[in-house]
Q: What sequence folds into this?
């Protein structure tokens, strides 16, 4: 049995069980399968699930379940396990006022920005409103955290935006206005964070550059602070007007004071090696290093 055949079978069996033997409140759930487009090369063909009244659907990659089946695990046990997972998921998914999703003017207050690499996302970027920024791209999401779904969001596609009658330019302007209010920036010295986590103070080396960690307060997609109005100038005020930016991940950045003895080539090698060894592929942002000088107000890859 191929994965697609397995997916088709389990989809049909789930539809049958949800419409007959499961509690009545679950019987109008929408269950299907299709290719699920994800950023960072994480697209897959999987199961889709939308409980009655939910405004968004959940998607699940069933390849691990399929591999378990091929290794000899009984199919009925897999089906029951998946049903229980979907029931729990159904109970966690809120059913907010549907008018919220009919009104861009209301939804714009839940806009967030995400910074992603262009490389590896070329195909899906063709379907999204986005802006280029060196080797990176800016995309936009509606955050569902306000609806009781932490770390959940809806990626805004061009077709979704057209349905609201909103231009990409208006979306960008609104995102710059509301995203910093929804997810405020965090800019803290690395040594202070390490002290907080370990309880052991790190000796400060004379002449060592200042290093700050930039993200948002909940840490999710925190590299977006690069777009926040005034943020780079604020950082320049803390880092003596010029600094390097090292992309730790799509969730956080390192800001390092520019000193004469710092070699950009060394920083680039360090970013590349850390990405390869310690950052999950779906969280990688770039192997580039960026430089900012307050006097010219330009962010450039080096």
A:
């Amino acid at each position: 049995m191929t994965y697609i055949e397995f997916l088709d079978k389990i989809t049909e069996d789930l539809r049958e069980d949800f419409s007959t033997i499961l509690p009545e409140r679950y019987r109008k759930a929408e269950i299907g399968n299709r290719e699920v487009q994800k950023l960072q090369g994480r697209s897959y063909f999987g199961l889709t699930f939308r409980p009655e009244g939910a405004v968004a659907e959940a998607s699940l990659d069933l390849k691990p379940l399929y591999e378990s089946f091929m290794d000899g695990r009984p199919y009925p046990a897999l089906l029951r396990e998946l049903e229980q997972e979907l029931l729990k998921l159904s109970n966690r998914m809120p059913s907010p006022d549907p008018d919220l999703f009919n009104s861009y003017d209301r939804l714009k207050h839940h806009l967030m920005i995400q910074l992603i690499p262009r490389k590896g996302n070329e195909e899906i970027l063709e379907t999204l409103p986005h802006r280029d920024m060196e080797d990176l791209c800016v995309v936009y999401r509606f955050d569902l955290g306000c609806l009781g779904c932490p770390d959940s969001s809806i990626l805004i596609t061009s077709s979704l935006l057209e349905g609201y009658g909103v231009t990409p330019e208006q979306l960008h302007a609104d995102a710059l206005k509301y995203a910093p209010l929804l997810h405020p920036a965090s800019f803290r010295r690395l040594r202070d964070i390490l002290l907080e986590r370990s309880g052991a103070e790190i000796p400060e080396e004379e002449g060592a550059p200042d290093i700050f960690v930039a993200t948002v307060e909940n840490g999710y997609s925190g590299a977006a602070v690069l777009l926040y109005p005034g943020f780079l100038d604020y950082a320049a005020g803390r880092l003596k007007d010029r600094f390097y930016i090292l992309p730790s991940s799509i969730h956080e950045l390192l800001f390092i004071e520019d000193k004469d003895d710092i070699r950009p080539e060394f920083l680039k090698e360090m970013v590349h090696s850390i990405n390869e060894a310690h950052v999950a592929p779906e969280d990688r942002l770039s192997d580039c290093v960026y430089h900012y000088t307050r006097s010219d107000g330009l962010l450039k890859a080096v």
About this structure: Residues 185-301 form one domain. The chain is about 35% helix and 25% strand. The mean pLDDT is 88.
